[in-house]
Amino acid sequence: MPRRRAAAMLRVSPAATHHSTRHIPRSLNAYARLRSSLRPHLEAARERGELPAHAGPEQLAAAAVAFTHGLVVQALFDPGRFPEDAQVAMPYGFLASLAAS
Q1: Per the structure, how many domains does the chain have?
Q2: Average pLDDT rounded to a whole number, residues 41-67
Q3: Which domain holds residue 55?
């Protein structure tokens, strides 16, 4: 591919940027709601001694959402490497690693 054409393909127009970012506030609200829905469960797990006493529910919720979001993205792009059983087992391993810290 000629260099000029490749550079043109990488260039982002202001219209494209505006179009791709107009849904960001809605997405941020969805992630905030998801983190908020996890917090009470993480607080309860901490009170039961299933998570370290120093574990902050806000940070744990953010980490859990980031982990699962990343897992979903990887499964979409490489489904052979992330079959259903792995997608179910990996969050449990992630949560167990939090409990061990």
Answers
A1: 1
A2: 90
A3: 3-100
